[in-house]
Amino acid sequence: MVQVSRNRNGVRVKKLLVVAATIAGVLLYRKVQESEARKAVWSQSTDTVD
After folding, report:
1. Which helix (H) or strand (E) holds 33?
2. pLDDT tens sequence across 18-42
């Protein structure tokens, strides 16, 4: 019985790690997109006028 209990806890920990990694990935993706958008706005506003 103790081994079954360890197995269940191991699965729960793995699921929790997968969820945490997914959330971290989404947050990182959003941060990169925000950074790229700011770069685009900055580049557009600092272009030379012909």
Report:
1. helix 2-45
2. 999 999 999 999 999 999 999 999 9
Nearest to 27 by CA among 15, 35, 16: 35
**Model-level pTM?**
0.66
45 confidence band (pLDDT: 50, 70, 90): confident
Residue type, 7: N
Residue 34 CA: distances (Å) to CA of 2, 22, 23, 45: 48, 18, 17, 17
CA distances from 32 to 27, 36, 48 (A): 9, 6, 26
What type of residue sits at position 24? A
Rounded Cα gap, residues 27 and 10, in angstroms: 26
